[in-house]
Fold this sequence. Notes:
single chain, mainly beta, 15% helix, elongated
Amino acid sequence: xxxxxxxxxxxxxxxxxxxxxxxxxxxxxxxxxxxxxxxxxxxxxxxxxxxxxxxxxxxxxxxxxxxxxxxxxxxxxxxxxxxxxxxxxxxxxxxxxxxxxxxxxxxxxxxxxxxxxxxxxxxxxxxxxxxxxxxxxxxxx
Length: 141
């Protein structure tokens, strides 16, 4: 191969490498869809027998895919005096005249587990009807 032919091959190769790939950039597509809102919570512990002092209620598993976030709520009977909840060590008071206590108020979706404990005073109320639920903050699909 002559020197002149080698130069032409190098120039041609350099030109091909420098040429933008318009064909690949011109072909694109968009995929859109609607995903159903999933927002749920469960406790894998035992609520009885409760006693004065610290009661371990177990682990809360929470899942909510709402982009605006969610609230995790514990529903309980009214009249619970001198009681509070600990969720991952953070104390949340239970108001005596309330029937629900917000455990988590999140502005983002989440899939996580937390440790739940109940601190009771000297009078131990009947808390056999405790319910936990998660509610999305945004539009439900």
